[in-house]
Design the sequence.
């Protein structure tokens, strides 16, 4: 690359944009393939039922303990596609770059996307780059959209949730949010908190193999945390959810940081965790499959679905009392992902 | 909507974001359907070959003569998907909103996306919203990604370009770029210039019906204009391209504005035009099909592919001399789309 920083001309559609695509994006993402420069990707699928999702990423800072915006952009969409049991296959990547952004940082981020794509088993097959004037964006924003193949023909959706179902989470809550806030606030802990950003498709595959159609619903509790996901489940299925606080896994450092900062771990973002609603009968088997996967070692059964209090999530606290766990009302941590 | 402007909490993952999705996005985009709030869309295709593309839109101003950022975001991706002959079916939409952005403007833009989607025959099936602090974006940026179905099983690609092929354009050049710059610079013309933003899938269908496999390559000359598209064709196919300036359609107002501003219409962006490379034999038939379509009335045969001067685009000027038409070298109009 001739330039050390991104110029407006890198988004011009002309020579410099072609150089950027060829000398950075294609070289880093597809080192072994001849450069293809069409505006679309021509793809073959093995079946004709797909899962399609998109997310934009505006996380601040762009490099954080345990990951960066590039990795997050790949795993975030991989996870959304996977939540219905589909196998993620193809991603698009749209970059909005601020004029003056260091090319070196862009290259680090794209390399991180390449590694994350490889780890998730997806290919980044099409993309776009826009450059805006200094001050019209903050460094870099990335959108990914993704296509997964639903070859197992499952029907995993909040509409399947039934009274009696168990609520399973795949590990400790709040790691991503606290990793981000600790950088922003300059906090340091004895044992550093790192983001949990990870691709969940492998874990989901194991859960589906163990539980089949008994896995009723799945979602990754990102922005808004576990509380928002469970409230969405309760509202859309017209059921109540009861949690047992003592069973909810939270790392000691994270719960300490939450106390210090006045946060509740139930509202803090996760980027490598899922919550699943599984039939009462199949829950132990699915939980055991989760615990055997490297991304599910801290999995736990944290509560159940009930026919009473439809639309509400209620938690039995460690002190024995009960409290309503509402959806996040205001804003807690802007630009967490 | 309770708020008149976008709040950081509209991107929180919590209550306000849910309200925004339900009360604005879903209400405007899918007024006749029950609200679905999963993080992915579960879709059925009729075949298993697809076209996949993405674009982010950062155009400034967001409302301009002949269109707005919402319409542009739909048609831009619809057109990219269609350039291989696929039928566009599904779009995703990712919004990055600046804190303080008027909800009224967002609603106008989303309504415009709904109309554009209807006109193009696509459905917006999944989305995402992020909100950044005031000053970390400029009003609104939109990413769309799209899936088209390649049921005709064509192979339209720059690799098919052969010496002797004709170069066809579907109408006048430079309308979009001049419409945008006239607003930015406060210029007014006797006959106002409006953006040509339009969905090209219907026109393409007619061209493919007329020409079949004789339609070798197609692309929409957006950023970088016709010159950049033709240079990309010449480079990737290893051929030369010769243009005849007198045959290139440009509106009088646009060529006047270009003279005034020091632009060359060959480098100015279009948003509702395509350039096609078609076999010598089939070109008259394809051109006639183009002229019969409402978006192709000003179509023209502007030159041909040659085996000499590989990688170069050369234009015979109206004065009888020849000049090299290079790819856009610097930046001409940032944030044109």
Sequence:
């Amino acid at each position: 690359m001739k330039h050390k920083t991104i110029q407006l001309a890198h988004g011009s559609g002309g020579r410099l944009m072609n150089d950027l695509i060829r000398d950075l994006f294609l070289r880093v993402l597809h080192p072994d393939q001849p450069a293809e420069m069409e505006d679309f990707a021509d793809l073959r699928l093995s079946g004709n039922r797909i899962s399609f999702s998109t997310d934009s990423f505006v996380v601040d800072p762009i490099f954080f303990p345990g990951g960066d915006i590039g990795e997050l952009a790949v795993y975030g969409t991989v996870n959304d596609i996977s939540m219905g049991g589909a196998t993620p296959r193809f991603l698009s990547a749209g970059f909005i770059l601020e004029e003056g952004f260091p090319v070196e940082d862009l290259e680090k981020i794209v390399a991180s996307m390449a590694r994350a794509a490889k780890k998730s088993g997806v290919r980044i097959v099409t993309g776009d780059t826009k450059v805006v004037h200094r001050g019209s964006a903050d460094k870099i924003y990335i959108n990914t959209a993704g296509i997964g193949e639903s070859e197992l023909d499952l029907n995993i959706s909040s509409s399947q949730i039934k009274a009696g179902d168990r609520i399973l989470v795949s590990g400790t809550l709040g790691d991503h949010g606290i990793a981000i806030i600790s950088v922003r606030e300059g906090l340091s802990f004895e044992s550093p908190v790192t983001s949990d950003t990870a691709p969940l498709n492998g874990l989901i595959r194991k859960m589906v193999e163990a539980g089949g159609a008994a896995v009723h619903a799945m979602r990754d509790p990102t922005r808004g945390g576990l509380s928002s996901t469970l409230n969405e489940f309760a509202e859309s299925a017209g059921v109540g959810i009861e949690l047992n606080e003592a069973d909810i896994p939270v790392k000691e450092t994270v719960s300490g940081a939450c106390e210090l900062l006045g946060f509740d771990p139930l509202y803090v973002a996760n980027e490598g965790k899922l919550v699943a609603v599984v039939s009462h009968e199949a829950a132990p088997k699915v939980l055991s499959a989760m615990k055997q996967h490297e991304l599910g070692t801290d999995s736990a059964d944290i509560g159940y679905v009930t026919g009473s209090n439809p639309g509400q999530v209620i938690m039995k606290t460690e002190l024995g009392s009960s409290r309503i766990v509402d959806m996040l009302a205001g804003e807690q941590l802007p630009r967490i992902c």
Notes: The helical segments of chain A are 15-29, 69-82, 103-120, 175-184, 201-211, 225-237, 252-261, 283-292. Residues 85 and 140 of chain A are 31 Å apart (CA to CA). Chain A touches chain B through 84 residues (CB under 8 Å).
